[in-house]
């Protein structure tokens, strides 16, 4: 069992779940924060490669992070313990906010839209006892882009292509060699490299990366300024840092069966197109995810109950038999590709940042959700989007190290809320089988009784027979004999089922209010004097109201979307207000209306931002139909600065203007962060001293010298 040694106090801690081939350890040395992101090794070995950032984990979150950091000019490398990328589909639902982020990753969102299955083949999810299904809303009113259905392994493939376009390479251990002298690791994804040790030195984090070369385990040393743990639900980085998870564990154990069947795909495309199929019959129970009906690619999720049922019991043959039972007929071409066990948790890390702000958790390493609602990968991508620009400002010397704490204060409450929402949605999904007489809580209770009363008395095989016999009796509740309108009990259950579906109380896949309407209360923003809400209050509102998204321009909110048209240019195309914020550099955007006081505040913003070397662009929103002569006024009002853009509203009924949609007046000025969240809002005629107010905004909560920006 590996240990974590504390150098200062001599304390020794044990760590559970270590890797089998290497002793992992984290040596925590109490050292001052070093001034350079890529300083000396601190170990006397000048051959140790230096990098500002090392990312552990080459899943979607780690790859998005590496793309953003590289675009922002931060050198980084990625360590991935596997020697090849998995073909198991895993996550597949990409929500609005994540697709908005993907729009700015060199057109990734467009690639997904062109590559995903046709919408009509997946816009429903179905319960086998009913032909009704919830229809997803794809109207592009609240966002410039729709949700998507695209398997994780395919997303990883697209991300790798995008990274290749900006100079990234994927390397195996034998393509790198064991020597570290003159080794250049930046812009590389090191496959087959597992983070096995972490040491905090005078000059950063010294990583031990274990790899297999020619059958021998070796360790490569890498020094970095920041170590970002994006290595998934069973995070090694989290374990080494001694960070614990809080929440509900072991909600359900499942077997995930990845298989292909073009026969089944053709049948469902013709008869019952959909994304999710909840199947309950007297022979078996499972959830079928149709990743691609056209190509017949599926994943079947089957609950199992150890120790009576073990993962080893689910051979390829057994899984094929279960597939046939759930389908109801035997497709001729079922090909089982992969079988994996997994455990459903609902947990959030007790903290996201450790070791003098040097170790940061991102994605599933920081939170583990039930899959109901598809929050896992989406929350992780949004973590990466929140963190990347802050690291960039820190490296560029315009932010203090304490800016990294705002990553935790902003993203951890979102993860806690999404955890609760995922559990709530999981329970809603389980209300359907419960209405049919297949209450999952009863199954769990039966399992617990068998474990507590028979576990030490009778052999496992006999326990298995008892458990499966009881489950067989339970599944009989959905037999045609019981579940029909002529049977009084069946009729009652079907009526209950219709009520749940009609009232929208079953599983939901779109959460516009939470997806686009979440708001940071504390962090890299200037809280409004009139703010009356807390995060707890927001949660209470969300739990009591519909899932409707209401645009908000409050500090901490995502910038509301409306179509705009650039003025004084030959380009007649329209774009989103979200496109006023650059995707290629960490630039702030100040949104104003063409008013004298607002222009004055904009000039102060440009002047002071120039002093601080902080990129800022002014965006002047004009009413629809503004004439060119008036628009030219921005040039004289903002001279000598040229980093501004004039745009014209393209409103859509029932609102008449962007300001009206945001429920504010055109006297408002709004500072938007590089991640498209609002950092500050005020009304220009309330500002008496523009220079002082701008300096206050830029230095708010910096916790260091006034000239450092904590935003």
UniProtKB/TrEMBL annotation:
Keywords: FAD, Flavoprotein. InterPro entries: FAD-bd (IPR002938), FAD/NAD-bd_sf (IPR036188), RIFMO-like (IPR050641). Gene3D superfamilies: 3.40.30.120, D-Amino Acid Oxidase, subunit A, domain 2, FAD/NAD(P)-binding domain. One of its GO terms (molecular function) is oxidoreductase activity, acting on paired donors, with incorporation or reduction of molecular oxygen, NAD(P)H as one donor, and incorporation of one atom of oxygen. This is FAD-binding domain-containing protein. One of its GO terms (cellular component) is mitochondrion. Residues 51-415 form the FAD-binding domain. It comes from Oryza punctata (Red rice). GO terms for biological process: ubiquinone biosynthetic process.
